[in-house]
Amino acid sequence: MSTQPVSERTRSLSEKFKRQIIEKLREESALCQERIERAKINIATPDDGSAKNGDTHVDASPSEPTEVSIAVMAGSTRTIARITVALRRIEEGTYGVCKENGCGRDITENRLLALPHASRCIDCANKDEQKRLRPRPGTQVTRAGSVGTYPRI
Description:
- Helix content is 54%, strand content 3%.
- By secondary structure, the protein is an all-alpha fold.
- It has a two-stranded antiparallel ribbon.
């Protein structure tokens, strides 16, 4: 057990709610593990491009399924890491508190139920998303809304 003080937020979460969250985190971790195993199988047995189950329209190049499987593995691995952190935060008594740059606000129970491994409150998560989606210097947004690097005329 950590020597860090238990936050008021974590203390206010009921034991029943914590058990519910722990169960959700474990289920999600198991699903991620299954996805990783399926992706490994897909990589080990690449599709030769022939149609299956009567499907005669196959557009994917042979490398696309491998790339998709690698992306699935990477995403699932990141989610498992977040789950591990969330379980540790429950143990340490810091779960349910936003850890973004000293924000320290409570993460709502509804958010925790929807995304049990959330480590940021909705406001901090939205700010981060807006920063990520903001066009970088040197890019232009067209009237249609697409972003790209275009020559200046």
